[in-house]
Structures are given as structure tokens and as C-alpha cells.
From TrEMBL:
Record carries keyword Acetylation: no
Protein name: Catalase
Keywords recorded for this protein, A-Z: Heme, Hydrogen peroxide, Iron, Metal-binding, Oxidoreductase, Peroxidase
Span of domain Catalase core: 8-392
EC supergroup of this enzyme: oxidoreductase
PANTHER family documented for this protein: CATALASE (PTHR11465)
SUPFAM superfamilies registered for this protein in UniProt: Heme-dependent catalase-like
Family matches, as SMART domains: Catalase (SM01060)
Sequence ranges of Polar residues compositional bias: 1-23
Similarity section: Belongs to the catalase family.
Segments for region (Disordered): 1-26
EC number of the protein: 1.11.1.6
Length: 485
């Protein structure tokens, strides 16, 4: 068999762009015709059976969300419509890279996925405990996660692959700085913030829209864990976070988070100094201050882990009137990939399971499929449009539009400054925290086999802040390349 260094699709067609998904213009939505993107995501979702490909290890709890501030001028979402209104919800916390039996206290982002059972259907806000992410285009997600998983030859974690990918993807630098710092290992699931991470769109009853980012601020405060203690607990008590959450709720010590949002006028997206749809960037709180929305309280443990925590299926594509997606390319890919993963892992009728079923009555023409355990629509009309008074569309709930322009092609974001915000985060840390950050990175990068990879990543750190790059280079016994000074 001859070696072919030319990247191809599964049917052998050469790939012209593996870094940028195809969109309708620079800020347009991702196009269905990008079959390479769809193939990558669909194949990726089917690579593990039967646990989740990512976020396999998780803990969950029931609770409620209560509105404390009237923001109806921004959104017509019914569950946010009046102060004092309570909506039942379920949350699943998780690590990202490890398997179902992995340790809770590893250095890893934490999934922070909330399902609101609203009167207009389920709204899923599927985020992390970080306001940013490693990549900004879904076409790179399978490759990124492959580096976090086990080497196919050794079946061991591979730091060389991790840092090789990051060094070739400078957009990851902001999240890497966040992850390798103190917040990379939360002390508990109760003492970490949560974020929607992506930019979303809110639309009010008049049809006026704004861009929005979500922040769940832990009322218990943010507390982190020393890496040496985390390693000790990982060996002695790998389910530490899971038990801590369960016991707190069982003992009546109900954790809570205050939900706040940043609001950006629609037109600001064209002039803001960073692309507001780039999930590797944040919006300055000085430019767009946090506005309180309400409080989330967890007050009930699951009765059965498998039925609730393991079988809960959340997707950022599950939205309600008043909340819509943005042109964020990472979000656009997740709108497809998450529900596709659930259809594969749990089944075509996963949304009919009790933990996933909406509180309001479902009314559609979906029939059959594996594990259909209701009356399958009975003898009612099974197509639309029809003349038999079957469920019909409601034009007032159409998604609002936004202008797009440009050529349909694979394009990157307009802004490629991957260093300013990472450097700002580094400089925001005090001296002791910076030292811990550097020590964590050096310890991890010492396992990388090629100096070429180390050198490339050192240059990324140096571009963010000269001290940052220099200290890591010194810790690795290397020097910063002259070309970046």
C-alpha cells in the first residue's frame, strides 16, 4: 500500500481546506454543502460505543431557575418573562477528555450543561466552566479531541499530540492559559463558575435583537485545588467531585449560581475590536457589564444515575422562542453534532425519555424508530401540510433573520489576534499565580518528545507576553527564538 500524504475524505477525494468550514460569507451560517465538515462531525460522533465521545464522566442534579430581574425588553423567552417565575431544570457537570471511569480531579475543562424545562419546550444551555474554548471552528473539533484521547498505538495519553496541536493552533492559547492556571482544577463542582461560552441572540416581542453571553457565577465562591492534592485524590478517590455534589444536596446544602449576561447591541458586532462570535475571545466587562438575570438552585439528587445523568441528552440546538444562534462557527457545528451524537448513542427517540421529555405536550410528525415506547402517534395524521387539523406551524415563532454577504467558501475569521487576550489573562494573575501557571505548563511540556513542538509553543507564549514565553523556555531549558523577539 502506497503512502499518501494528501488529506482526503473517506471516499478518497482531496480536501482543500481542513481548517475553516464553508460559510455564506465571512459571518454567514455554515453551509450544508460542506460535506467534508459533515462527514468529520458525523464520523466523530460514532467513534465510541456506548459512552459519550466527550464529557463521558459526569454528575447531575435537579433544581430550579428563578428570575430576579426583568429583561423582557431584550428577549421574549417565556421562562425569563417575569420576576419570581420559576422553571424546573436539570444540570450535568462533566470532565471533557476522560472516559466514564476517569478521575474527577484531573486538569480539564468542566462541562456545565443546563436543561430548562420551559412552557415552550426544553432550552439547553450547553457550556463549560470556562468563558472561552480551544478552537473556534467545528471543523477542527474531531482533530482536537483526538489529541486529548488515547494514542491508537500505545493506548496511552499523548502529551506530544496535545501540545503539537496547540502549537499549530495559536487560537488555543487563551484557553490553554486558563486551563493551565489555578482554575484548571476546581475544588468542587459547587465552587466553579459556568459559561454559555458562545455568543447567542436574544429577540424581544417587537422583533428587536441583541447579542448575549451567559455567565453563571457560583454563590459559593470560586475555589480551586492544588495539583498535588488533586493527583492524590485522583488515585485515592476518583469520584470525589461526584460524591461532594451528591452529599451537599442530600444534606440540604443546596448550591446556587447567579446567572448574569452581557448584552451587545446588534450593530456593535461590526465594530468591536474582537470578533464577538469568536469563542476563543471574551467581551470586556467594561465594554459590556454583567446584568443579573436570575438564580439557579440545585435541590434534588437523581433517583437513578443511568436514567437521568447518563441518558440526559443536551444540545445547544434546543432553543425556545426569544433565543437564537449567532454566526459563531463553533456553535454552528455544535447545533448539528450534539443532537446527532444523541441519536446515535441513545437512539432516535432519545428526547422521549423522561429526563429529556419537555413538560409541554409534543406535537409533530416524527414516527417510528428504535425504542419508540409511546403510542407512536396512534392513528392520527402523519404528514404536513394536511386537511385534518393536525399540528401546524406558528409564523410568529419564526427565527429572526440577519444579513449575510460574501462568497460561499471556506474562510477563517477576519481577526487573527490570538495573543492579546491570552497576554491580558497572564498579566491579570498575581505573581504567585503566574509562577504556578508556568510550573504547570513546564511539567506538562517536558513530556513532549520533539523540541520543535516545544519551541513553536514557546513562541506562542512569548507573543502573548515576553515574560510568559521566557519563563517557560527557561523551565524547559530552551531559548526563545530570535525571530519572535
Amino acid at each position: 500500500m502506497t503512502t499518501n500524504n494528501r488529506l482526503t475524505t473517506s471516499w478518497g477525494s482531496p480536501v482543500g481546506d481542513n481548517q475553516n468550514s464553508m460559510t455564506a460569507g465571512g459571518r454567514g451560517p455554515t453551509l450544508l454543502q460542506d460535506v467534508h465538515l459533515l462527514e468529520k462531525l458525523a464520523h466523530f460522533n460514532r467513534e465510541r460505543v456506548p459512552e459519550r465521545v466527550v464529557h463521558a464522566k459526569g454528575a447531575g442534579a435537579h433544581g430550579y431557575f428563578e428570575v430576579t430581574n426583568d429583561l423582557s425588553k431584550y428577549t421574549k423567552a417565556d421562562f425569563l418573562s417575569e420576576v419570581g417565575k420559576r422553571t424546573p431544570m436539570f444540570i450535568r457537570f462533566s470532565t471533557v477528555a476522560g472516559e466514564l471511569g476517569s478521575a474527577d480531579t484531573v486538569r480539564d475543562p468542566r462541562g456545565f450543561a443546563v436543561k430548562f424545562y420551559t412552557e415552550d419546550g426544553n432550552y439547553d444551555l450547553v457550556g463549560n466552566n470556562t468563558p472561552i474554548f480551544f478552537i473556534r471552528d467545528a471543523i477542527k473539533f474531531p482533530d482536537f479531541i483526538h489529541t486529548q484521547k488515547r494514542d491508537p498505538k500505545t493506548h496511552l495519553k499523548n502529551p506530544t499530540a496535545v501540545w503539537d496541536f496547540w502549537s499549530h493552533s495559536p487560537e488555543s492559547l487563551h484557553q490553554v492559559t486558563y486551563l493551565m492556571g489555578d482554575r484548571g482544577i476546581p475544588a468542587s463542582l459547587r465552587t466553579m463558575n459556568g459559561y454559555g461560552s458562545h455568543t447567542f441572540k436574544w429577540v424581544n416581542k417587537e422583533g428587536d435583537a441583541v447579542w448575549v453571553k451567559y455567565h453563571f457565577i457560583a454563590d459559593q465562591g470560586v475555589k480551586n485545588m492544588d495539583p498535588q492534592l488533586a493527583a492524590k485524590i485522583a488515585g485515592e478517590h476518583p469520584d470525589y467531585h461526584t460524591e461532594d455534589l451528591f452529599n451537599a444536596i442530600e444534606n440540604g446544602d443546596y448550591p446556587s449560581w447567579t446567572l448574569k449576561v452581557q448584552i451587545m447591541p446588534i450593530e456593535d458586532a461590526n465594530t468591536y475590536r474582537f470578533d464577538p462570535f469568536d469563542v476563543t475571545k471574551v467581551w470586556s466587562h467594561k465594554d459590556y457589564p454583567l446584568i443579573e438575570v436570575g438564580k439557579m438552585v440545585l435541590d434534588k439528587n437523581p433517583e437513578n444515575y443511568f436514567a437521568e445523568v447518563e441518558q440526559v441528552t443536551l444540545s445547544p440546538g434546543n432553543m425556545v422562542p426569544g433565543i437564537e444562534p449567532s454566526p459563531d462557527k463553533m456553535l454552528q457545528g455544535r447545533l448539528f453534532a450534539y443532537s446527532d451524537a444523541h441519536r446515535y448513542r441513545v437512539g432516535a427517540n432519545h428526547n422521549m425519555l423522561p429526563i429529556n421529555r419537555p413538560k409541554n405536550e409534543q406535537a409533530n410528525y416524527q414516527r417510528d424508530g428504535q425504542m419508540r415506547f409511546d403510542n407512536n402517534g396512534g392513528g392520527s395524521v402523519y404528514y404536513e401540510p394536511n386537511s385534518f387539523n393536525g399540528p401546524a406551524e406558528t409564523p410568529e415563532n419564526k427565527t429572526s433573520g440577519f444579513a449575510v454577504n460574501g462568497v460561499a467558501e471556506s474562510v477563517s475569521y477576519d481577526h487573527d489576534d490570538h495573543y492579546t487576550q491570552a497576554g491580558d489573562l497572564y498579566r491579570l494573575m498575581d505573581a504567585d499565580e503566574r509562577e504556578r501557571l508556568v510550573a504547570n505548563i513546564v511539567a506538562s511540556m517536558k513530556e513532549v518528545k520533539l523540541d520543535e513542538i516545544k519551541q513553536r509553543q514557546i513562541q506562542n507564549f512569548y507573543k502573548a507576553d515576553p515574560e510568559y514565553g521566557t519563563k517557560i523556555a527557561e523551565g524547559l531549558g530552551l531559548s526563545v527564538g530570535e525571530e519572535v523577539k
